[in-house]
Amino acid sequence: MTAPNKKSKHPAVGIDLGTTYSVIARLDELGRPQTLNNAEGDKITPSVLLFEDGNVVVGKEAAKAAATDADNVAECAKRDLGNQFYHRQIGGRRYPPESLQAWILNKLRVDATRQIGAFSKAVVTVPAYFDEVRRKATMDAGYIAGLEVMDIINEPTAAAVAFGFQQGYMNPDRPDDQRKKILVYDLGGGTFDVTVMEIGGRNFNALATDGDVMLGGKDWDQRLVDFVAEEFIRKFGLDPREEPNSHGRLWRDCEDAKRTLSARAKAQIACDFRGQALRVEVSRSQFHDMTKDLLDRTSFTTRQTLQAAGLEWPDIDRVLLCGGSSRMPAVVEMLRDLSGKEPDCSISPDEAVAHGAALHAGILLAHYDGVSPSFHVRNVNSHSLGVVAMDARTRRPRTAVLIPRNTPLPVVARRVFKTQRVGQKSILVQIVEGESASPDDCSQLGKCSVRDLPAELPAQTPIEVRFRYEENGRLTVTVKVEGTDKALKHEMSRENSLSSEELDSWRKYISGLDPIAPPPPANLSGEAIQLAAGAKAADDALDYAPESEGPPADPNAGTVKRRWV
Question: Which 3-state string (H, E, C) describes 428-479?
Fold first, then answer.
C-alpha cells in the first residue's frame, strides 16, 4: 500500500480511547499501521488516573494504586461522558469526565511524541452506539489534551478497516467486485458494539449498528467481585466491598481471575478484609453461569443488528471479533452456535481499533494533500434523531423523527411543521435522540428558540426544520419560518457540556501552562432552573399531525425529506 500521508508533514495517528485500556498507533513510511509503545514500554495503557500530591499519574502505576489508594483513583471515566461530572469525587473534588479523558489522551500524545516527534492531528475512536453528546464530549477531551481531532470514527468500523488492510482490500490491484459482508462483534472493557458492514473493493459501508455503552468486561468482573464478596459475608459477616482499598484489591484479583479462566478450567481468588482472609475457587462453568445473562444481552443485540441490516446468517461471510473481552471462550462459543461460522480472531483485539483509526487518519491527511484515498468509509447513525412536537390530535408532546437510525451518513433531513396559533411570538425546537415516541424516554440533545416573530403571523404557518448529520456523528440544526426572514442555524447548547472558556482553562492546566486548576462547571441554582423552565414554557412547541406522514425516504439518496403538518 502506498503511504497515504507521504506528502504530509503530519504523521497519521489514530487513538483508541478505551474504557479500560487505550492505544495509540501511527502509519509507518510504507503506510502500515504500527502501535506506539508508551513510556513504560507497553502497547496498551490502562485508562486509569491517580491523583497524588498535586500530580496526576496515568496508566499502569495508577491501576496498581487502586488497591492501596482507591479514593484518589479514577477509572472507567468513559462511561461518564455526557454527564456533568465524574460519578464520584476524587480527593474531595468533582471533575468533568472530559478532563479525565483528556489526561489519558495527553499521556498518549506525550509518550508518542518521544518516538515520532511533535504532532497534534489525530483520529479518535468512539463506540458506535455513542450518542451525539458523548461524541462531542470526546472531541472536547481531545481539544483539552492539545489534539486537533480531525475526525472520530466508530470502533467496529475502525476494526473492520484494520481487517480490510490486513486482508489486502486496500491494494489498488485488487478487483472491486469482491464484496464481503462482515459482522463485527466488539466487546471491550466498558462498552459493547455490533456492526454489520459490507466491504466492496476499497469501500467500507456500514449497514446497521447497535450496542450498549454500559456493557463490557467490567460487568463480567463485577459478577466475580460480588460472588467472592457474598462468600466472604457468609463466612465472616463482613463485606469487603465496603472499604475502597479492599474493594480495589478484590477487583484486581477478579480481573486477573477472569483472564485465567479464559486459559484454564478454574481460578483462585484471594480476599482479605479486617484481619480475615478467604480464598475462593471459581470454575469456568460457574463463571459462565453467573454471567450468562450478560452474554445473552450481546446475543440479542447481535441478532437485532443482523435483522436491521436485512440479512440472515448465510449472508454473512465473516464474524470478526474485536475488543479484549472477546477473548472469553464463552463469547466464541456463543457466536459459533449463533452464526454457524467459526469466529475470526485474526486481528489483535487490543490494537485493531487504533490501527483502523490510524489508517483513517492517513486518508484524511491524504485528502488535505490532494491525494486520492485508498479506501472510503461510510457509517450509519446509531440513534434516531428528531424534535419534540405537539400531536395535533392529543395535544401531547411526541417525538418527530427526522433521521431514522441506521441511515447512511452524511445525510440532510428536513421536516415541515406548523405554528399552533395566530400571532405566535416564538417557537421552541427541542432536539432529541432515541427510538421512543415519548420525548421523556429519549436523550435531550439541546434546544433552540426562534423569537420575535411578526405580530400577525397566521396560525399553521409552515416551519422548516433541517438536520445535517455528519459522518462523525455531529449535528447541525437549521430552522426557517416560511414567509419571514426568521432563520436560525443552531450549534446546540448542552447543559452538561463545558463552555469554551472552561475547555481553554482545562487545556492550559493539563498541558502545564497554568498550574491553577479551573473550577468545575457551575451548577444552576434553584432560581436559575426556574427561570430556565419559565423561558422554555414561554416558547411554543412545534405542531404536527402524525397521520400526514409521507412515505419512507430512500436513505441512499443522501437527503431525507418528510413533511409534517
Answer: EEEEEECCCCCHHHCEEEEEEEECCCCCCCCCCCEEEEEEEECCCCCEEEEE
> CA-CA distance, 116 to 47, in Å (whole number)?
22
Q: Is the peptide bond before 410 cis (omega within 30 degrees of 0)?
A: yes
DSSP labels, 218-273: HHHHHHHHHHHHHHHHHHHS--GGGSHHHHHHHHHHHHHHHHHHHHSSEEEEEEEE
Q: How far is CA 106 from the centre of its chain?
A: 19
The domain defined by 385-495+519-563 folds into Substrate Binding Domain Of DNAk; Chain A, domain 1 (2.60.34)
Spatial contact of 33 and 162, defined as CB atoms under 8 Å apart = yes
Q: How far apart are the first and last CA of the chain?
A: 53
CATH class of the structural domain 13-215+300-378: alpha beta
User: Which residue type occupies 182?
Assistant: I
Residue 547: how many CB atoms within 10 A of its CB? 9
Q: Is 201 buried (19+), middle (13-18) or exposed (0-12) by CB count in 10 A?
A: middle
What DSSP letter does each residue of 339-382 carry, written as one string?
Answer: HSSPPB--S-TTTHHHHHHHHHHHHHHHHHTTPPPS-EEE-B-S
Could you say which DSSP state residue 93 is in?
B
Q: CA distances (Å), 326 to each of 344, 398, 502, 546, 550, in order? A: 11, 39, 38, 43, 43
pLDDT at position 496: 59
The pLDDT of residue 382 is 87
Q: Is 173 labeled as catalytic in the residue annotation?
A: no
Active site residue 78: yes
Query: What does DSSP say about strands 21-27 and 13-16: parallel, antiparallel, or unpaired?
Result: antiparallel
pLDDT for 521 equals 61
Catalytic-role residue among 98, 140, 151, 186: 186
CA dist 530 → 24, 520, 526 (Å): 45, 22, 6
Q: Mark the ranges of the chain whose per-residue pLDDT is less than 50.
A: 1-6, 522-538, 545-565
CATH 3.30.420.40 region(s) of the chain?
A: 13-215+300-378
Give the separation between CA 16 and CA 188, rounded to whole angstroms. 11
Q: Which of 75, 78, 255, 447 is catalytic?
A: 78
Q: What is the pLDDT of residue 220?
A: 98
155 assigned to active site: yes
Residue 520 contacts residue 96 (beta carbons within 8 Å): yes
Which residues of the chain does CATH 2.60.34.10 include?
385-495+519-563
Torsion angles phi and psi, residue 60, rounded to 5: -60, -45
Collapsing DSSP to helix, strand or coil, 77 comes out as helix
Whole-angstrom Cα distance, residue 32 to residue 171?
Answer: 12
At 145, give phi and psi (nearest 5°): -80, 5
Rounded Cα distance, 33 and 211, in Å: 27
Residue 16 annotated as catalytic:
yes
Active-site hit among 98, 155, 221, 539: 155
Q: How far apart are CA 308 and CA 143, in angstroms?
A: 35
- Of 16, 193, 350, 471, the active-site residue reads 16
